[in-house]
Amino acid sequence: MKVFSSKYTLDYSFEEVSTANWRKYCPWNDKSTHVIAVDTLSRQVDPATGILRTERLITCTQQAPAWVISLLGGSNTSHVYETSYVSPADKRVTMCSTNLTWSNILRVRETVTYQPDLTASSPGHERTQFTQDAEITALCGGWQKIRTKIEEASVERFSENARRGREGFEAVLEMSRRVFGEEREREQAKMH
Prior knowledge:
By secondary structure, the chain is an alpha+beta fold. Helices cover 32% and strands 37% of the residues. It has three helices and seven strands. It has helices spanning 14-20, 66-72, 144-191, and strands at residues 2-10, 35-45, 52-61, 77-87, 92-99, 106-116, 128-138. β5 and β6 (106-116) form a beta hairpin.
């Protein structure tokens, strides 16, 4: 098993981040063109805790290494199952995802959290802490050397995708802030 971890601070409030998270794979994000569909399977609020639980199926096109396709077959379309939890009381978003495609050969389990970064925030300038952890495990039998090679290649690809994902989400956050700001100005102008 190989592990990928990333942590950074977003220069946006928790409210902005938790709202824009649902637009992460929209046309504003030119870094996520590999995502071809996001289907919401279920969404419910726990009446006791107020936590919003959402299940989604994310369909992507990914260029698997040619040697993997030739060895294992398959296509470049993959599916990821995501469960997210939004806790307004704790101001925390947690998203857990796992691959469905080739899961008998390679298991990728990712957890992402967003929560206010109280150490980096100040009044009028709130920031949000982003944490991403992934465990990547090759499940194929055979030699350890092959499993290690598959895991290393997968971590490298995951790392590159995570970098692009962060850049794309920052673009979505920037556009959301601008669009919502313009809308607030229009509403305020109507009131005067």
